[in-house]
Amino acid sequence: MDSRQLVRRVGIPADLLGIPGERIPLTRYTALYRLAEEVSGDPDLGLVVGHISYFTGMNLHLYMTTICRNLKEYFNVIPSTIRLRGDLGRVLIKPAGNYIRLEWHPLAGVPADWRCLNDEMLASSAAIVGSICALPVPVRAVEFSHPRPADTSALQRQFGPELRFDCEVSCLYFDRDCVRYPLIDLDYDLGPDFRALPESFFEELDQADLFLRDTRATMRRALPAGELTIDSLAADLGISRRTLQRRLTERDTSFKELLQALREELAARYLHDRRLAITEIALLLGYSDQASFSNAFRAWRGCSPTEYRSQQ
User: Fold this and answer.
1) Backbone angles phi, psi at 85, to 5 degrees
2) DSSP string across 148-210
3) Which of 73, 127, 157, 270 could make an S-S bridge to 54, C-beta 3.0–4.6 Å?
4) Nearest-10 crossing angle of helices 58-65, 45-56
5) Any alpha helices (H) in the chain, and if so which ranges?
6) 92: helix, strand or coil
7) pLDDT, tens digit, for every residue of 248-297?
8) Model-level pTM?
């Protein structure tokens, strides 16, 4: 049975899979996943899907290395990147003694002990963290909410020997010190027309105004987390809200104007790299979904992001 037959059996139009940003109802998605498990007969299917998810999402995570300075800042963004998978679950990062826990929490309607999805999310998360960090970040232990399978050899190859089953949540353990590790520093642009790396993007604007340049850089790092406010920006800059407002007023601008200008400029630059999906660009700019980004972009440029990209 090929992929088109699989999706037809669960009531998903095959052509829908070729539409960027199109959403599939959760019940049909889970039915498709269950059918793939049944047809493949592979109990380690989740590890395979996690491996594929890691590679298909790598362009986005490479962009994150140009935004975040260390693993701590990246961990602050992880919950937002999960939104790209839709209404499946969320990731929480918690301290645990000498370790930190990356926890996977399925949302309502998704079984907490579903091995395939748990394996997928943990495998892709471990691979991403290990590849974007400049120093090795080994998985120290893994906890699974599902029972111990008869054969754990594939899980041990993926995560190491420290595996625990029938736990409250599925999670990865990393050394706590890793949050200070720097991310890899790319020495090339990610796309032929992409010029939005921090050094190229911010040096060309207001080179003599270090405050405005640093403010833009701080805003860009905070955008993917989706919670950028004037108060959070002031805290990140280490100044009071009143001081931030005063300094922006002295430069004939405001937080709202600066945010809109930054998003518009970055959006146009990101759209030049066709390897970034529209949903991924919406995430990088701090929008909750693709529709919100598309509406904002249409107000800026008079066309949708897809139309703008096709014109380039």
Assistant:
1) -85, -5
2) PPS--HHHHHHH-S-EE-S-SSEEEEEEGGGGGPBBP--SS-SSTT---SHHHHHHTS-TT-H
3) 127
4) 50
5) 3-9, 26-40, 45-56, 58-65, 71-81, 115-132, 153-159, 198-203, 210-222, 230-237, 241-250, 255-271, 278-284, 290-301, 305-311
6) strand
7) 999 999 999 999 999 999 999 999 888 888 888 998 898 988 889 999 99
8) 0.80
The CA distance from 81 to 291, in Å, is 16
205-239 pLDDT tens trace: 555 689 999 999 999 988 988 889 999 999 999 99
Closest CA to 274 of 207, 179, 193, 156: 193
Q: How far is CA 227 from CA 232, 287, 290, in A?
A: 8, 9, 16
How far apart are alpha carbons 145 and 165 in whole angstroms?
A: 6
Q: Quick check: 186 pLDDT over 80? A: no
Q: Is 260 exposed, middle or buried (0-12, 13-18, 19+ CB in 10 A)?
A: middle
Residues recorded for the chain: 312
> Rounded CA gap, 280 and 258, in Å?
22
Cα 174 from Cα 137, distance rounded (Å): 7
Give the Cα separation of 228 and 237 in Å (integer).
13
CA dihedral 218, 224, 225, 226 (to 10 degrees): 100
Dmax over Cα atoms in the chain, in whole Å?
Answer: 67
Which residue is it, tokens 């992880």? 78
Q: Which of 257, 212, 211, 215 is nearest to 236 (CA)?
A: 215
Give how far Cα 67 sits from Cα of 3, 76, 202, Å.
36, 12, 12
Alpha carbon of residue 226 to chain centroid: 11
Q: What b/e readout covers 209-228, taking b as 16+ CB neighbours within 10 angstroms?
A: eeebbebbbbbbbbbbbbeb
Tens digits of residue pLDDT in 76-129: 877 666 666 666 888 889 999 999 999 999 887 788 999 999 999 999 999 999
- The first and second tokens of residue 243, run together, are 């001081």
* 130/51 Cα distance (integer angstroms): 13
pLDDT attached to residue 197: 47
